[in-house]
Amino acid sequence: MRTIKHISLAIMILFYIGAGINHFWHPDPYDALIPPYLPWHTWINYMSGGAEILLGVLLIFRHTRKGAAYGIIVLLVLFIPAHIQMIRQGWCTGSGFCLPRWAAWARLFPGQLLLMAWAWWHRKN
Fold first, then answer.
1. What is the pLDDT of residues 102-118, one digit of tens each?
2. What's the whole-model pTM score?
3. To bridge 83 with a disulfide, which of 29, 93, 96, 108 should be the other Cys (CB 3.0-4.6 Å)?
């Protein structure tokens, strides 16, 4: 079980660092998902990407892992409005690929809950 948890942690670290980098590399899809009632879409996008990178790096170290796991859970809660916006407008990338509405719902529920559970599992060393 210990080996599985180490592999899972490594995947989680890469997942959040990679997702965070993608906010900077391909910002347009993320900007489009920020609800219109929120100001400063580009700033919110870059801050959330930076937070994902930071939390992914903090998962690496035992003494910061618990705080990083809790931070990821909070971040995932903060992302819920973007997922609701994705459901409302549909999600299409610049390449013409559109996520079906059922898949957008699956990203919100159970997707977000599974990601939260994954972080919760790694809160202990």
1. 888 999 999 999 999 99
2. 0.92
3. 108
